Amino acid sequence: MNDESTIIEIKDLSKVYSDGVEVRALDGIELNIKRGEFLSIIGPSGSGKSTLLHIIGILDTPTTGKITIDGRVITEMSEKDRSQARNEILGFIFQYHHLLPDFSALENVMMPLLIGGKSKNEAKTIAASLLNDVGLGDRMNHRPAQLSGGQAQRVAVARALANNPSIVIGDEPTGNLDTKSSDMIYELLRKLNRDKGQTFILVTHDEKMARKTDRIIRLVDGKIFEDNYFE
Ligand code: ADP
Ligand code: MG
CB–CB of 31/10 below 8 Å? Predict the structure, then answer.
């Protein structure tokens, strides 16, 4: 690590897919992300955004290069340590909420807490408090099908935050929502970032959403084409 404030350090990272045709999805990525940043990754379709996010999320491994997250060298870990690190450090929000259809909002948010070893009562208290934070205190017992798209995505946000991750990553977290719901989700993520200081890394193809973040990393052909900070 460079210093305490760096939470993610990526050195000379490349990813080559070689099933059939060879595709260099990421090519020599160098990137440092500080604790508490609220940043977006943008770029054309196929530029490597999801691949980079999945590698940062410890869901995929690079072909070459080194990644350090929260002081741990992820690229030198066993599969078991990697999955432990993933559970401890990261929260995920995807384009489709992937909520369990037969469970209530409350139960969906409780799930990762129960898996993480919390008792049922503790899980219920934390999940209820998170649903309050995302403005769904009055929808806890609704099942996903009884919620609007924007509300369901807010449940997914609460679920991503359940184990108090230091990094939250989102791949097109508002990709299937209307503009108004998207804006609400971004405002919500921003508020959580301000209140709890968690680091947010959001992939989006929506330039307007990206401009709501503090830093935009633009990928082109698997390389960082631009890296700009905003006030
Ligand atoms: P983005 O999210 O920016 O649209 P991706 O990271 O999904 O881009 O993909 C980057 C490149 O890698 C693309 O050319 C894509 O076709 C290729 N790619 C992604 N996943 C695989 C895979 N599992 N096998 C082979 N090629 C892949
Ligand atoms: Mg993608």
Answer: yes
* Domains of the chain as residue ranges with CATH: 6-229 (3.40.50.300)
What is the predicted pLDDT for the residue at 101?
95
Q: Which of 29, 50, 55, 94 to mutate to test the pocket of ligand 1 (most atoms within 8 A of CB)?
A: 50
Look-up of token digits 């799930």: 111
Has this prediction a pTM greater than 0.90?
yes
pLDDT at 1: 42
Looking at the chain, how many residues does it have? 231
Which protein residue's CA is at the shortest distance from atom 5 of ligand 1?
A: 48
Q: How far apart are CA 178 and CA 170, in angstroms?
A: 17
Angstrom distance (rounded) from CA 50 to CA 48: 6
Position 3 confidence tier, pLDDT thresholds 50, 70, 90: low
Q: How far is CA 153 from CA 140, 141, 188, 196, in A?
A: 14, 15, 11, 19
If you measure from the C-alpha of residue 207 to the centroid of ligand 1, how many angstroms do you get, rounded to a whole number? 20
